[in-house]
Amino acid sequence: MNCARRTIYALALCLRSDLPRKWLWAAATLVGIGKVTANWTTGKLGFALLNVQLFGVGMTKFNAYSAWVVTVGFPLGAVVVHRKLRARRLRRAGGDGPGERRQDVSEVGLEIHAPPGLPRPR
């Protein structure tokens, strides 16, 4: 159920953000791409690359006596929205990594020493 949780979380983040074309990105977060199915009783697995499903997860039972079939799709829209929002947050913070900025060698106070026998760098 991590797939559905990530999808709903990405939808909430998208709706609260200031992304351009917010409603288009919100619709994209609700879609799962591809499909992996597992028959609950027999353990039979299936795979489909070209499949689109809402929320990226699902369970089906064809009648009262059949087995449950669990379906999971990759939440591509949710992943893209997460990465776009993270990149925007880092750009606004002015950092290169999560919560920190790179320091130049001269800021740290390190000196470069040449190995013995080689001329010193200028």
Tell me what you see in this structure.
The chain is α+β, with helices and mostly antiparallel strands and 122 residues long. It has four helices and four strands; from the N terminus they run ααββββαα. The chain has helices at 2-16, 22-29, 76-93, 105-108; strands at residues 31-39, 45-54, 57-60, 69-74. It has a four-stranded antiparallel β-sheet with strand order 2-1-4-3. Strand 3 and strand 4 form a beta hairpin. Helix 1 (2-16) runs antiparallel to helix 2 (22-29), helix 1 (2-16) packs across helix 3 and helix 2 crosses helix 3 (76-93). The N and C termini lie far apart (59 Å).
Number of helices: 4
Structural class: alpha+beta
Give the proportion of residues in helices. Answer: 25-40%
Order of helices and strands: HHEEEEHH
Uncertain spans: none
What's the pLDDT, averaged over the residues?
A: 79
What is the radius of gyration computed over CA atoms, rounded to a whole number of angstroms?
A: 24 Å
Strand order of the biggest β-sheet: 2-1-4-3
Q: Percent of residues in beta strands?
A: 15-25%
Structure summary, number of beta strands? 4
Distance between the termini: 59 Å
Shape: flat
Largest sheet: 4 strands, antiparallel
Report a brief summary of the structure:
With 122 residues, the protein is an alpha+beta fold.
Mind sketching the topology for me?
Elements (H helix, E strand, L loop, with lengths): L1 H15 L5 H8 L1 E9 L5 E10 L2 E4 L8 E6 L1 H18 L11 H4 L14
Antiparallel strand pairs: 1-2, 1-4, 3-4
Please tag this protein with its features:
single chain; 122 residues; alpha+beta; flat
